[in-house]
Specification:
By secondary structure, the protein is of the alpha/beta class. The chain is built from 8 helices and 12 strands. The protein has 2 domains: 48 residues, RNA-binding S4 domain (Structural Genomics Hypothetical 15.5 Kd Protein In mrcA-pckA Intergenic Region, Chain A); 177 residues, Vaccinia Virus protein VP39 (Rossmann fold), CATH 3.40.50.150.
Amino acid sequence: MTRRLRRLGDLVAELDPGEDPDRLVASGEIEVDGLAVTNPEARVPAGALVRRRRPASLRGQAKLSAALAAFGIDVTGRVALDVGAAAGGFTRVLLEAGARRVYAVDAGHGQLLGSLRQDPRVVNLEATNVADLTPVLVPELIEVVSIDVSYLSLSAAAAQLDRIRLAPRADLVGLVKPMFELRRATAPIDDASLADALAAALAGVEAAGWTVVSSMASPVLGARGARELLLHARRGVASPPR
């Protein structure tokens, strides 16, 4: 007796009616009997276990999630710019927090996860330096900025954001990496160096037209156990009392 076969995209539509089923399949988010299938036209036998794969957690996710909660930043319905997107940990958090669109910028190529590449809310600006951003590449008014860069200080990255349009009260969350902020050959771990790095980042971000509101230690260590900090700044507000 011939087993009844059904189109995978149609099965996914029943499984998750709130999203585009063909996009979910093509982005690798669906598995059939434990194996990823990326063709929405694939025929699946009745009784096969079709489910959405749980995305692997990225290290950056815990960092930005903690920062948004601690700093009380509401991303819902806002347009965001993720500088140094890499695989997309920050981008994923921004989307899950309700961002309407995320411009994912990275100097590298091919790092952004396939599921994020396929997401219509993500504009993939790979092979793009922050210094190359223009209103043509980022035509919308940016309301939230996240920055996680390597080989470049947070201060230097923030100084180059004036090439695009920023909302008057845009929020910025930046990851402070002491090694790059202080131009050290290795990552410092002592409290004095971390304080110096934070002070340098704070001065640089404020020189770029932002007001630093708060800062915190990152809940997750960086590469090779490096200690990092997170900084929250806002555009167009008076400096808080220190």
